[in-house]
Amino acid sequence: MATSPALLFPSTSSSSSPSSARVEAVVLFNICDSYVRRPDQADRVIGTLLGSLLPDGTVHVRNSYVVPHSESADQVAIDIEYHHNMYASHQKVNPKEVIVGWFSTGFGVSGGSTLIHDFYSREVQNPIHLTVDTGFTRGEASIKAYISSNLSLGDRHLAAQFQEIPLDLRMIEAEKAGFEILKYTMVEKLPNDLEGMESSMEKLYILIDEIYKYVDDVVEGRVAPDNRIGRFISESVASMPKLSPAAFDKLFNDKIQDNLALVYLSSITRTQISIAEKLNTAAQVL
């Protein structure tokens, strides 16, 4: 991977800065996906934000892509060639989407953010910085947008100050449901297919037991009958296919075998991808 020298040039600024940011859901999903697929040694991922500047000063972010980088306490190296190639490819598909800023995973602004922001300030005037807390530092995925301004003493530049700006997340109902799942840490790990099937079957057994108890209570006169619940139970039973126990066992076992085959194939695929990434990294080093 061809990387640039450390970006240590001064920050730039302008009097007209974005007043707010509007981010499409696909951008957040792309960022989360890139964080999951990051290299093992990477603590965070960064990338370019694409979109447009609206007449009212709002930056509308509609797309993004990851940019390989490495960073230490006081230096940052960005794969500038990769960044420019990706941007050129996006321009061929949608020339109206231009660079509007950059994103990073993590909580708030980190030490190397100023250096990376300096680079994007050369790519576009007044870029925004979008942060997505994929580490759930405060129990949820905090998402914030910033602009940078220079702090100066006379003619002497002292530092760059990041100021938070209003952020509007644009989502339809289906996207909101997916985002709510990603927003909070609900489980330590995602279950595989077999674990998910086992959990579903356990919940199904509990529901069936509750239905049996309700029907028995109605028949014995302990609970007043509810016609609405009775119709719902009748429709649910009628919707089930009429299968013999032997046919049901065969169908269920076939499904388990299919899931085992998928788990095996996905394991092989992950292994091949991991080997390919290590070989690619070794080839670039050599």
From TrEMBL:
This is Eukaryotic translation initiation factor 3 subunit F. InterPro entries: eIF3f (IPR027531), EIF3F/CSN6-like_C (IPR024969), JAMM/MPN+_dom (IPR000555), MPN (IPR037518). Belongs to the eIF-3 subunit F family. Component of the eukaryotic translation initiation factor 3 (eIF-3) complex. GO terms for biological process: embryo development ending in seed dormancy; formation of cytoplasmic translation initiation complex; pollen germination; response to sucrose; translational initiation. It is found in: Cytoplasm. Residues 21-152 form the MPN domain. SMART domains: JAB_MPN (SM00232). It comes from Setaria italica. It holds the Pfam family MitMem_reg. Component of the eukaryotic translation initiation factor 3 (eIF-3) complex, which is involved in protein synthesis of a specialized repertoire of mRNAs and, together with other initiation factors, stimulates binding of mRNA and methionyl-tRNAi to the 40S ribosome. The eIF-3 complex specifically targets and initiates translation of a subset of mRNAs involved in cell proliferation. Keywords: Cytoplasm, Initiation factor, Protein biosynthesis. GO terms for cellular component: eukaryotic 43S preinitiation complex; eukaryotic 48S preinitiation complex; eukaryotic translation initiation factor 3 complex, eIF3m. PANTHER family: EUKARYOTIC TRANSLATION INITIATION FACTOR 3 SUBUNIT F, EUKARYOTIC TRANSLATION INITIATION FACTOR 3 SUBUNIT F-RELATED. One of its GO terms (molecular function) is translation initiation factor binding.
